Amino acid sequence: MNPLAQPIIYTTMITGTLITTLSSHWFLAWVGLEMNMLAFIPILMKKTNPRSTEAAIKYFLMQSTASMVLMMAIISNNLLSGCWTTTSYINQPPSLMMMTALAMKLGMAPFHFWVPEVTQGTPLTSGLLLLTWQKLAPISIMYQIHPSINIHILLTLSTLSTAMGSWGGLNQTQLRKILGYSSITHMGWMMMTLVYNPMTTIFYLTIYIILTTTMFLTLNLSSSTTTLMLSRTWNKSTHLAPLMAPILMSLGGLPPLTGFLPKWIIIQELTMNNSFLIPSIMTIMTLLNLYFYMRLIYTTSLTLFPTSNNTKMTWQLENTKPMPLIPPLIITSTLLLPISPLLLTFH
Amino acid sequence: MAYILFTLSVLLVMGFVGFSSKPSPIYGGLALTVSGVVGCVIVLNCGGGYMGLMMFLVYLGGMMVVFGYTTAMAIEEYPETWGSGLEVLGGLLVGLMMEVMLVLWVLSLNEAVVVVVGFSDTGDWVIFEGEGSGLIRGDSIGAGALYDYGRWLVVVAGWTLFVGVYVVIEIVRGN
């Protein structure tokens, strides 16, 4: 992208999200979502090839359909209640339409089919923004409408998201598709306790953003986008090869790493509300997620794939690529569990 | 003419069917212009004289003209019109048939008179208060309030339109 155009595009993307999160009028919340989507399209097309054009078109079609449904919900809510404020109660039919629209925006099942395709067609840094920053605005709206959401449908969407995200990622070798399916699974987990304790959703979102940012930036260091390219990490940046293991295990939710903490809180919230079957199903489904992360750990650090002898000397040369923020992100994404009472101030 | 608003709404939907059956953009622009004219007349009939004429000026006289010029630049040798292929003609006929059936169903209802004739609300945009003459037209005072109470919205909308042009140029740049 032209360096003169970059400040305007990135500023508009950030401003759109800020307008959505900070507005109390439904119309301005919608305007912020549209600004965000409009400015994100050229970020998806940073490298112009037909694949990224296809990814940008798919993203645009899905998000604008969701915005249309959201606008219809906003107007029918105004017709029924006369209210334009985001903090007041929403009637049930518009609330259902709003939840559907926001599920489409977030990539929850059964509207999840665009997430791996769009993440695959874009460079790694655009995929990072797609899976982290673009989730902030819709989740802020869902946080504001959480008293009016139909519990049954939201729990159905969450369970479906976990199942589809886990099963879909099983046969993948492309790393961006794996991270896309992982995002679908995490969205399912996030929306489970929205009705019971919405602060757990925000907490899960924070930890998820830290973990996904760590993964994307680590992959960006060696520019690896397939499992085969990941298997050369020991040669390119030797110190990172064994560090991928705790990051991926944290993403999969293994104790005693950070990724276990939000899942634990969500299971606790659900069992406090007398629901035992749903957290059991979700936990068992997420084990499939852990399986394909373990496959990545296997190719990165547990085995060395056969290579020719003249490629084996890259690790001796000095690596000049800068590592943006990776050391503090790795520490945050693996070692936060002991300070959990400090983090869980909403209990 | 008591049921003018109902007739105009039916004509609006038929115009929309004309371009959503997806002919070539030049014909779609024609149907969009016709639908726009009917929409403006609906707004005029609801009492919003200022709004309707504004829409004529800006939407039809500004945006549609620019759209017409750009599609004329990108035209192909044999553009697809409504009678040129079975897909477009089929979509058009299905849409028109559904609209006719809906009109017949509405007219056969018991409270059809309420829907058809009582639909008009021509006094909607006049507010009977205010100092001076005691009468304020809601539509023209709204355009003034846009720069007063709605200043932030004008800034956001203007910035978004500007960024829209930027985004389109970035996407079609191609390198």
TrEMBL record, chain A:
Q: Which InterPro entries match?
A: Complex_I_Subunit_2, NADH_DH_su2_C, NADH_UbQ_OxRdtase_chain2, ND/Mrp_TM
The GO terms this record gives for MF are: NADH dehydrogenase (ubiquinone) activity
Q: Name one GO biological process term.
A: mitochondrial electron transport, NADH to ubiquinone
Tell me the ranges covered by the NADH dehydrogenase subunit 2 C-terminal domain, including all copies: 290-344
Q: What is this protein called?
A: NADH-ubiquinone oxidoreductase chain 2
Any one GO CC term of this protein is: respiratory chain complex I
Gene of this entry: ND2
Any idea where this protein resides?
A: Mitochondrion inner membrane
Catalysed reactions, as listed in the record: a ubiquinone + NADH + 5 H(+)(in) = a ubiquinol + NAD(+) + 4 H(+)(out)
**What is the similarity comment for this entry?**
Belongs to the complex I subunit 2 family.
Pfam families (UniProt xref): NADH_dehy_S2_C, Proton_antipo_M
Bilayer-crossing regions: 151-171, 202-219, 240-261, 281-305, 325-344
Q: What is its EC number?
A: 7.1.1.2
- Keywords, ordered alphabetically: Electron transport, Membrane, Mitochondrion, Mitochondrion inner membrane, NAD, Respiratory chain, Translocase, Transmembrane, Transmembrane helix, Transport, Ubiquinone
Q: What membrane topology term does the record carry?
A: Multi-pass membrane protein
Q: Which residue range or ranges hold the NADH:quinone oxidoreductase/Mrp antiporter transmembrane domain?
A: 23-287
Q: Which organism is it from?
A: Macaca fascicularis (Crab-eating macaque)
Briefly state the protein's biological role.
Answer: Core subunit of the mitochondrial membrane respiratory chain NADH dehydrogenase (Complex I) which catalyzes electron transfer from NADH through the respiratory chain, using ubiquinone as an electron acceptor. Essential for the catalytic activity and assembly of complex I.
Question: How does it associate, per the subunit comment?
Answer: Core subunit of respiratory chain NADH dehydrogenase (Complex I) which is composed of 45 different subunits. Interacts with TMEM242.
Taxonomic placement? Eukaryota, Metazoa, Chordata, Craniata, Vertebrata
TrEMBL record, chain B:
Which cellular component appears as one GO term in the record? mitochondrial inner membrane
Segments spanning the bilayer are 25-44, 56-76, 88-107, 149-169
The catalysed reaction is: a ubiquinone + NADH + 5 H(+)(in) = a ubiquinol + NAD(+) + 4 H(+)(out)
Task: Please classify the protein's predominant subcellular localization into one broad category.
Answer: mitochondrion
List each coiled-coil range.
none
Molecular function in Gene Ontology = NADH dehydrogenase (ubiquinone) activity
Give UniProt keywords alphabetically: Electron transport, Membrane, Mitochondrion, Mitochondrion inner membrane, NAD, Respiratory chain, Signal, Translocase, Transmembrane, Transmembrane helix, Transport, Ubiquinone
Entry EC no(s): 7.1.1.2
Q: How does it sit in the membrane?
A: Multi-pass membrane protein
Q: Where in the cell is it found?
A: Mitochondrion inner membrane; Mitochondrion membrane
EC top class, as a word: translocase
Keyword Electron transport part of the UniProt annotation: yes
Q: Which family does it belong to?
A: Belongs to the complex I subunit 6 family.
How is this protein organized at the quaternary level? Core subunit of respiratory chain NADH dehydrogenase (Complex I) which is composed of 45 different subunits.
Protein name (record) = NADH-ubiquinone oxidoreductase chain 6
This chain's source organism reads Macaca fascicularis
Q: Gene that codes for this?
A: ND6
